[in-house]
Specification:
single chain, four-stranded mixed sheet, 133 residues
C-alpha cells in the first residue's frame, strides 16, 4: 500500500487526523464538528469526497497559523509532505486542509476568516498522482 511507503515522520505527524480500518486509510471530512464524508485511501486507489466539509489538520490557535496548505485530497497533502517534510518539521506554525473534489466559495471564505494571518499555499496535482516512493 502506498501509505506505508510514506516517510515515518509524515505518517506520525498526521496519525491523529486519520483512521485505519482494515486495508483502508480514512480521512474524516467535517462540517460544524460533524463527519459528513470520508476520503478513502487503499491499495485500489483513492476515493475523494465531494461535500461541503473538509479534512482539517489543526491543533493550534488559528490566528497563530503562518502557513496554510490547501489541497483537494488528504492523500495529496500527505504525499506533498513526504517530498517536503520541512513543512511538518518547521518552527513555523503550519496547518493543512483538504477541500474535496469540488471546493466551494464558502469553504474558502471560512478558511480565510479562520486563519487571518496565514499565507495560503495550494497543493493541487492537476490530475496526476504523487508517486510517494
Amino acid at each position: 500500500m502506498v501509505f506505508l511507503q510514506l516517510k515515518p515522520e509524515v505518517r506520525n505527524f498526521f496519525a491523529p487526523y486519520i483512521r485505519e480500518v482494515e486495508d483502508k486509510i480514512l480521512f474524516p471530512y467535517t462540517l460544524e464538528d460533524q463527519i459528513v464524508a470520508q476520503e478513502h485511501w487503499s491499495e485500489n486507489g483513492v476515493r475523494i469526497p465531494i461535500c461541503k466539509g473538509m479534512w482539517l489538520v489543526t491543533d493550534i490557535l488559528p490566528v497563530s497559523v503562518t502557513n496554510l496548505f490547501i489541497g483537494h485530497s488528504a492523500s495529496d497533502i500527505l504525499c506533498f509532505c513526504h517530498y517536503y517534510p520541512n513543512w511538518i518539521n518547521s518552527p513555523c506554525l503550519n496547518e493543512f486542509v483538504s477541500l474535496g473534489l469540488l471546493p466551494t466559495k464558502e469553504q474558502s471564505t471560512w478558511l480565510k476568516s479562520l486563519f487571518p494571518n496565514a499565507k495560503i499555499h495550494t497543493v493541487f496535482d492537476g490530475g496526476n498522482e504523487w508517486p510517494c516512493n
